[in-house]
Amino acid sequence: MNPESTFKFFDLHIGKEGEDYIVGRQDTGVYISLPEPGVEAINFLREGKSLKEAEAFLSEKYGEEITLKGLVEDFIECGFIKSVDGVVLEQVHELKEYHFTWVKKSHVKWLFSKITVGLQIVFIVSGVFLLFYKGYIPMYSDLFFHPWYTVVGGVTFVCAWLLVFKHEFYHLLAAKNYGVEGQFSFSHRLYFVVAETDLTNVWSLPKRQRYVVYFAGLLTDFFFMALCFWLRFLADSGVINLSGFGYALVKGLILMQLTQILWQFLFFMKTDIYYVIVTMFRTTDLLADTHRYIKEKLHQYFNVFSKQDLSLISERERKVIKYYSAFYLLGSCATMVVFLFYLLPITVEFLAGSLEGVLHGAFAEKTDGLVFISILIVYLGLLGRALQKRE
């Protein structure tokens, strides 16, 4: 690359985002934020002008010397430039393989119409009313919907993953409503395996539409939980007949869904609510910056952790981080509450019941307990391996 070099770009999305612009490729899912001069440089170079001509144009316009070599190198690294002086570049970013491409906007448009969303919200409100009117507060004991722990564990595993798929699939449908494709993948949060929908291309959408995509998963979660509340109410009223196992399973499903909803409010992880906040306040790396901010405060007041460099964080973003750190800590406290009042009692009861069955139960109870303990040992082994790899 030299001052006389010319460049050929791939098709790029360029959309205004506050004072800056979001620029990226939808086929690779790579997006960056640029100020207006950066976008002007792209447009000038796309016209076939040389690097030297673009620098001269921008320097004259802004009254100061502007060099573009570093910026162009960033464009190459991001995969925005196809060729330099006619020489095709090797691309480092793979093209994305999207899932459910046969589902089109015309198939899902009705799901996200104002009428449909409004009806869903009304139904959710009715479910919240039943929650308090009938006292349907989920208890950790609701998960034990069958006397055999192996059955509980197996059914819970299947149902929980179906609920996760429902949540992620609704994100995908919301994105498709705006013409954006996505793909499913598996990742991890803390030491839990999670499913997630890669919707990087939502950065090509206006803010309002992005909010719809981010909230879509929670909308279907609350809708499903409201449906379960109504099933309990109708069964209690004698309108429908649920078997003992069916009624207990509905209560268990409510607890599973509530846990997944609370998960989205763990502000120390990149959940749906996190991306809503990032979009709302236009922050670049909110989670990592919050980590540094909290460590800096702990260093100042308690002399723990090393001193953190916050000089690269703008004053505007620093104000956002200051308030977000409070939610971060609240999310951490909420996690402890869920652990102490739900996860820990459930685990203790599972383990105690399994050991009781192995030591004093009949053949069926012994088998049930041994199977569950074996599953627990395998999980602990995987957890230990994850911790070892983390180190």
Write the topology of this structure.
Blueprint: E1 7-9, E2 13-17, E3 20-25, E4 30-34, H1 36-46, H2 51-62, H3 69-78, E5 81-84, E6 87-88, H4 105-108, H5 114-133, H6 149-176, E7 183-189, E8 192-198, H7 207-236, H8 244-263, H9 272-281, H10 286-302, H11 315-360, H12 363-390
Antiparallel strand pairs: 1-5, 2-3, 3-4, 5-6, 7-8
Helix pairs in contact: 1-2, 5-7, 6-7, 6-8, 7-8, 7-9, 10-11, 11-12
The domain tally reads 2
Largest sheet properties: 3 strands, antiparallel
The dominant shape is elongated
Strand order of the largest sheet: 1-5-6
Number of H- or I-type helical stretches = 12
Mean pLDDT rating: 87
Structural class: mainly alpha
Query: Strand-and-helix sequence, N→C?
Result: EEEEHHHEEHHHEEHHHHHH
Give the beta-strand count. 8
Distance between the termini: 41 Å
Work out the radius of gyration: 26 Å
Describe what this molecule looks like in 3D.
The chain has twelve helices and eight strands. The mean pLDDT is 87. Helix 11 runs antiparallel to helix 12. With 391 residues, it is mainly alpha-helical. It has two domains: 7-88; 105-390, no CATH class. The two termini are 41 Å apart. Strand 7 (183-189) and strand 8 form a beta hairpin. 24% of the residues are buried.
Fill in the keyword field for this structure.
391 residues; 2 domains; 8 strands
